[in-house]
Predict the structure.
Amino acid sequence: MISLINVIINIKCEIRRRAIMLNTKNLELKFLRENQLDSKVKAFLIKDKYNCNYVTGYTGEFAAAIITGGNNYIVVNSLYAEQVKQETTGYIPVVYSDDANETIAQILENEQIKDIAGEFISEEEACSKYRVKSAVKKNDYLTEKRIIKNQFELDCVKKANQISCDAFNHCLGLIKPGITELEVAAELEYYMKKHGSYHTSFDTIVVSGIRSALPHGTPGEKKIEIGDPVTMDFGATYRSYCADITRTVFVGNPTDEMKNIYNVVLDAQKRTTDYVKSGLTGAQIDSYARDIIAKAGYGDCFVHGLGHGVGLQIHEAPSLNRRGNVAIPENSVVTVEPGIYKSQTGGVRIEDSVIVKKDGVEVLTASADKKLIIL
């Protein structure tokens, strides 16, 4: 009886979540029409996979969306004909056989549309491929709009990060001398999928010992040893939205040098997280963290940017690095991930995903402890 009640509750929750998602997509569609279609431009073409998902909800491959003032179309490969029907509402699915561009051109001809905007390599190419009179290139329009998350997106990112934090806490009880990096990565990924992650948001990183000095090292057959730092960089996804978290732990007592490196990174990470707020540029935030690490004597060992935006893609705008000259807006999601890496010694990276607010941030990975953990 209890299991039946749980099934009913889960079904109702799923129906409610889907209704919220579809309502959100409809609002994005309405906004797109109001802001991109006018007396001249009669259709907007979306070809980027993530932008298509953002507007339509379709998560498959090989798609293009055509938004008009009346009908809306999704052009898909026959492999995804049924999937697009299940995932979208209010779109006419059109299956292409050999040439998706020809199918797009035929739809525009049937709609008697000669002036378009959207995502393509060049305006000249679009006019030729789609047999239209004018084409306005707007490749960055939706990508930039995705920087500021709506409530549905924030809820999905929160859920993905909570699954990731739970996976980290679960694996703390499994990491011990003799276990391989590959086994730790497998445990993280298994736990995340078992608890609602659709897939990992990127290839899981688990590196130990001197290999922890590899910022994007691949898990290998190396067995974890006493005294090793173990850096784990990973993330779940929930309804296509990504999580990103990094933690470094020690198996047995670290050396004094590694303990000092950890404390420097932790100090930089905490202070920079407290510094972040909307209106600052990515370059300003990156510089703030970099100065802390440089003053501790490890400036040359911080070899990457401080962070990046997270959403439908694991790396998206805005960028928190030396070239990040755009102000970070409220309700964007970014990472704060300083690191120190010393060849033949080891490395430490600590990363949180945060929602940027007017006067600070909401940390999404707070339930995964950042204090120096010795297992």
Observations:
- Residues 1-146 form a domain with the Creatine Amidinohydrolase; Chain A, domain 1 fold (CATH 3.40.350.10).
- The chain has ten helices and 18 strands.
